[in-house]
Amino acid sequence: MPDCKRNLIGGEWVETGAFSENRNPANPDEVIGLYARAGADDLSRAVAAARAAQPGWAAASPQLRSDVLRRAGDLLLARNDEIGRLLAREEGKTLPEARGEALRAAQLFHFFSGEALRNPGEKLNSIRDGVEVEVTREPLGVVGLITPWNFPIAIPAWKAAPALAAGNAVILKPADLTPGCAHLLAEILVEAGCPAGVFNLVMGSGSVIGQALVDHPDVAAISFTGSERVGRGIAVGCAQGLKKVQLEMGGKNPMVVLDDADLDVAVDACLNGAFFSTGQRCTASSRLIVTAGIHDAFVARMQQAMATLKIGDPLLDGVQIGPVVSEAQLAGNLDYVRLAGEEGCEVIGGEALDRPGHFQAPALFLNANNQMRSSREEIFGPCASVIRVADFDEALAVANDTAYGLSSGICTTSLKHATAFRRASKSGMVMVNLPTAGVDYHVPFGGRGASSLGGREQGRMAMDFYTAVKTAYVQAG
């Protein structure tokens, strides 16, 4: 029987009595492991443990917090191959992508080990004689982290590392589909010397554990990454509880290709952005907005490039696209492929592959327009609409005509158009001659509109969400 992995509550690996199977999407008959499913009572115990541990963690030397995070980063580096292989097996990323994500988790912990030592404040002169003003940042207390399945080690890292660096205690609720990487992260933080109760792992269903985190009066803040539908519900719950909330949700990201684009650059950027990681990225390029003069050549080159993509077991050398994460996700993708055809698109690819596992061929929806549901709703699979436009002005208008605003891109050799797009794009991140997916860990991540709410993630700005500002006035003498 596979190992049974338990929840971490108050420094103890806790038996909860119920477990779920973690299966390999490339080979659904393979059970990777059994992982505990907690209930609301388990979550309450975790909150109590976190609340008890947090004051000591906050009062400790920032060097202690820095050292714990640095050691965690070192351990993540040392176990990169192990984590990468587990990630590839439970989520379906190719092994190079999975190892890259594990490396990103290590980099995040190393970055925030430095930020633990840099808690900036201000000392100002008051407008009143003899009064000094000091502005400082303090931890919030207990924070709940709810993370998705598509980046099962990087997103827990980019939430937990700044939260811990700021002196908070953490409760991590990972996605049901990918608990293995989160469990490994918990093991690593224990080995790195994180005090009991400061980091807690509570695995279970979102409707039970996620809701209990939102509702619990002793949880000061929630950071969530996932669907817009769930995020909106969390926002309402946090507002009712007067909790701080941070949401990273969906995207329907545009990639504009202008007539003057380098065709090789454009095809590479769109192929990567639309189809790598099986399109399972909130930053994926799902609307390819192409001006008329280059449209036909671009489509022909994209079809040629798609035909060469190697789809298969993500652990095998040379594979570029792995499986869709689950049978349910694949079924949803195929529904959108059918919908695109019904809406009048010429569908290139997109079929389920006749082999074991949840494999799907990448899909282009040709002759699309921006009012189709397949062009407006997030699919979260290897599917991209190709929308023909007349010129830059129409391309920009179509790119901005969306409820979302996470990432956008443009392929052009024109400095004028690149600059105009950067300034006018209504998104949180803009890429020029680069895929819309792919970001650095030391700069802010986030979007606008239905994509994001609350403070930015990653980089120094991440510390803003996990801290509260205090302004102190002192009468001297």
CATH superfamily of the largest domain: Aldehyde Dehydrogenase, Chain A, domain 1
Cα-atom radius of gyration: 23 Å
Stretches where pLDDT falls below 50 for ≥5 residues?
none
| Count of helical stretches | 15
State the share of residues found in helices, binned by percent: 40-55%
Strand order of the largest sheet: 15-16-17-14-13-19-20
Q: What would CATH call the class of the largest domain?
A: Alpha Beta
So, CATH architecture of the largest domain? Answer: 3-Layer(aba) Sandwich
The count of β-strands is: 23
The number of domains is 2
**% residues in beta strands:** 15-25%
Identify the overall geometry: globular
Structural class: alpha/beta
The average pLDDT score comes to 96
CATH topology of the largest domain: Aldehyde Dehydrogenase, Chain A, domain 1
Amino- and carboxy-terminal Cα gap = 71 Å
How is the biggest beta sheet arranged? 7 strands, mixed
Pfam family, one: Aldedh
Family: Belongs to the aldehyde dehydrogenase family.
InterPro entries: Ald_DH/histidinol_DH, Ald_DH_C, Ald_DH_CS_CYS, Ald_DH_CS_GLU, Ald_DH_N, Aldehyde_DH_dom
Organism: Paracoccus seriniphilus
